[in-house]
Amino acid sequence: MSEMLREQALEERYCLFFDFLGSSEIARHGPRERIHDFVDLLISISQIQSSENIDGAAQPDGSYRISLTPEISTFSDNVVVSWSNGESEDSPNPKLSAYWAGIVCQDANRVLSGVAEVALRIGLIVRGGLSYGELYHQRGVVFGEAMVDAYRLETKVACTPRVLVSPRVIERMTRDKPEEQNYLLRDDDGEWYLNYYRQMIGNAVSPGEKFHEGALRWKQAHLETVDRQIAEIRQTATPEAEKYANKWLWFRERFVIATERYQ
To answer: What are the pLDDT digits (tens) for 186-215?
Structure first.
């Protein structure tokens, strides 16, 4: 590879890394049906592996509509998604660069909400990190310190089933105040994380006159799944099992808050 191509390959990008809590237990001891369901989920993610595309167009009402297709790669039960920094010549509107970090966070919520909704049906929750920095992400190959930092957030900092947002990303939100954005939440420890929970419902319930009724059934079904998972985990009376159960309790609390309008 020439020096010019090397420089083009490694660029400043936003990088989302996440995986599934509970997947190891399913692989080792899960019933065949749950194993097959999880494999189907991984296959569906692998089939949407994509190359990045960014497009935008002015709307009749004066607004600007942007369409993002991030770069997506999977390996084992890990998923990596990345976006450009919004400052390249290919950007659909240079004026959007000041808002790009917020746009990426919202698109990350879109990706996460769809995956997390299906995962929850089979008793899995997601945890991850969103960071920014140098990254090579093309044709399924991922390498760079942005990936290292996103992985660090997931494995060393997140602890609970949340997708943390690195200070690197928050610092790039020059026009949007993080505390005023509904796509972000701040936890008791001061860490920012993505608020994809409410958006999950849009991936499962059809809009229309009976949306509220369907949303209520959807919420109840998922709460039953969460409670069943907690009960199953606590059947193994060990400190490690209780620690895992507490992660599900954390998720349950956030899920209930995000869907409180449906009751």
So the answer is: 999 999 999 998 888 877 777 877 888 888
Query: Cβ of 143: how many Cβ atoms within 10 Å?
Result: 14
CATH number of 10-198: 3.30.70.1230
Query: Which residues are registered as beta bridge partners of 54?
Result: 68
Give the model's confidence band at 60: pLDDT under 50 very low, under 70 low, under 90 confident, else very high.
low
In the predicted model, what is the mean pLDDT of residues 99-109? 92
Q: Tell me the C-alpha distance between 149 and 146, whole Å.
A: 5
pLDDT at 260 (0 to 100): 86
Q: Return d(Cα 105, Cα 121) in angstroms, integer.
A: 24
Give 42's strand partners: none
Query: What's the predicted TM-score (pTM) here?
Result: 0.85
Tokens of 200: 């999950």
Question: Residue 138: which region, alpha, beta or left (left: phi > 0; alpha: psi -120 to 50)?
Answer: beta
- Give residue 132's pLDDT: 97
DSSP state of 70: -
CA distances from 27 to 14, 155, 237, 251 (A): 31, 20, 21, 22
Number of H helices, E strands in the chain: 8, 10
CA angle in degrees (0–180, nearest 5) for 130-52-136: 60
User: DSSP alpha helices (H): ranges in 122-152?
Assistant: 145-152
Q: Could you tell me if 46 and 77 are in contact, meaning their C-beta atoms sit under 8 angstroms apart?
A: no
